[in-house]
Design brief:
Layout: E1 2-3, H1 6-24, E2 28-37, E3 40-47, H2 53-58, E4 61-62, H3 66-69, E5 75-81, E6 87-94, E7 104-111, E8 119-126, H4 130-145, E9 152-160, E10 163-170, H5 183-195, H6 206-209, E11 215-223, E12 234-242, H7 251-256, E13 260-261, E14 265-266, E15 269-270, H8 275-283, E16 296-297, H9 313-333, H10 341-347, H11 350-362, H12 367-377, H13 386-404, H14 422-425, H15 429-432
Parallel strand pairs: 1-4, 2-9, 13-16
Antiparallel strand pairs: 2-3, 3-8, 5-6, 5-8, 6-7, 9-10, 11-12, 14-15
Helix pairs in contact: 1-4, 8-9, 11-13
Length: 436
């Protein structure tokens, strides 16, 4: 992984600590602290997780440029231990060193005196303004919080002349779930993100979501097979649609309008979207789902994200497959949502058709016929009001249209409106109605 800026190295250290906490699969703590030591700022990233930090740092590549070299000397001070170690190992990495064998220097270790614990702390000094660093780190940590790894406590500590300020961004809690971030956890995080209208990661919009989030969600997971060349890949996609009326003249509606935001995480780290996944996103025929991606926003294409290092055909295939599964899941969960342009036109006739059918049923003088119709509709008794019957029929019509719009082209028969079929329900319909 190439290190081109101060943001790159800090984001990499935090992501590395987050992965070690996940590997522990137990209550864990991730802390980021800043301490001014004029003219520089001492930053340490520590965690109580487990993992081989030597392998991670061996892949780092320092890109020597004027901006980076003027802010960081390329040195990393590391203290690390595993629960089975009897000592705390002290290491120094010089990423500017060209000879690989000279990059790592082992310093005297410290005994643990029989204690059993694991953890890593990485420190470095940067010639930067502390306020700017705090803002950047806070934003990056907020993005990691979207992953909702509940067993990991995340803390930002800032020391200054006036004392020490500690911000607990997330408290760890013991839950049946593991630290493994899945689509369920990500859904919780993204629902919060949407309620905060995007990159305002700290403030929920109460005017738009005071009566519930009113969100429609779909998830999809695609996996590649494991073989001797790779250990397999997993792509998880969560799609959330905010069902807000654009007729609402609130400031939020005018400010944000209709737009699509795309957030991408690679190995649980916020990063820019690779070209292969972007191609997969653009390859979806969105009109088949009644959508048009007019404005695409990538809120993670900024200084608080990592550049994505890999992009291949497998990524494109998995992204496209997971996207389509998520769209299908959203349609299944929310009847009448993501209909094609053709289906929407057909749905426009549903209210009038439902009104006609309900009128025929309610005007019938045959109680047995009414009971049979109400039974097929799943309604309790013929005493229901006409509006209830009409809405029930309309919902069933829309449901049939939506089911037939799920991509199953070429089928000769559409799904039945009623479980026992409409023909049985309305057999001999002319005999049952008062036509006088």
């Amino acid at each position: 992984m190439a290190v081109n800026s101060v943001e790159d190295i800090l984001n990499l250290l935090i992501s590395s600590a987050f992965r070690r906490c996940r590997m522990l699969d137990d209550l864990c703590r991730l802390s980021v602290s800043l301490k001014p030591t004029r003219p520089s700022v001492l930053i340490s990233v520590s965690d109580t997780g487990t993992g081989n930090i030597l392998e991670e740092f061996s892949e780092l590549e320092y890109k020597n440029n004027r901006i980076l070299s003027g802010k960081w000397d390329g040195l990393l001070s590391v203290m690390t231990t595993s629960s089975s170690d009897k000592e705390i190992h002290h290491l120094k990495f010089d990423l500017k060193e060209v000879v690989a064998s000279r990059r790592l220097v082992r310093l005297p270790s410290v005994t643990k005196s029989g204690a059993k614990f694991s953890g890593t702390e990485v420190s470095l000094s940067l010639y930067e303004e502390i306020d700017g660093l705090v803002t950047m780190l806070h934003l990056y940590l907020q993005k990691i919080l979207l992953l909702k790894a509940f067993k990991i406590a995340i803390e930002l500590i800032v020391e200054s002349g006036g004392g020490t300020k500690s911000f607990f961004l997330q408290n760890a809690c013991s839950t049946p779930a593991t630290n493994a971030v899945n689509s369920y956890n990500l859904t919780l995080g993204l629902e919060e993100y949407v309620s905060k209208h995007g990159n305002k990661l700290t403030e929920a919009c109460h005017s738009c979501f005071s009566t519930g989030k009113n969100l429609k969600v779909g998830t999809g997971v695609a996996c590649s097979k494991e073989n001797h060349q790779n250990s397999g890949q997993v792509m998880e996609v969560v799609i959330i649609i905010s069902n807000m009326s654009m007729l609402d003249q609130s400031s939020c509606s005018r400010l944000y309008g209709r737009r699509t935001e795309v957030l991408y995480f690679n190995d649980f780290s916020p990063c820019s979207m690779p070209q292969s996944s972007l191609e997969a996103l653009n390859s979806i025929d969105w009109k088949n789902y009644g959508l048009v991606l007019k404005i695409l926003v990538f809120p993670q294409h900024d200084a608080s994200t990592l550049p994505c290092s890999h992009s291949n055909r497998t990524d494109r295939y998995l992204t496209r497959k997971a996207l389509k599964l998520a769209l299908s899941d959203l349609k299944k969960r929310n009847t009448g949502t993501l209909l094609s342009e053709r289906a929407v036109k057909i749905c426009n006739y549903a209210p009038d058709l439902a009104k006609t059918i309900s009128g025929l049923i309610m005007s019938s003088l045959d109680l047995n016929f009414k009971r049979e119709c109400f039974s097929l509709l799943g309604l309790p008794s013929p005493e229901c009001e006409k509006d209830i019957v009409e809405n029930c029929i309309k919902d069933k019509i829309v449901s049939v249209i939506a089911t037939n719009d799920s991509g199953r082209r070429g089928t000769k028969e559409a799904p039945a409106l009623f479980e026992q079929g409409p023909k049985k329900a309305f057999q001999g319909v002319g005999e049952y109605f008062d036509t006088s």
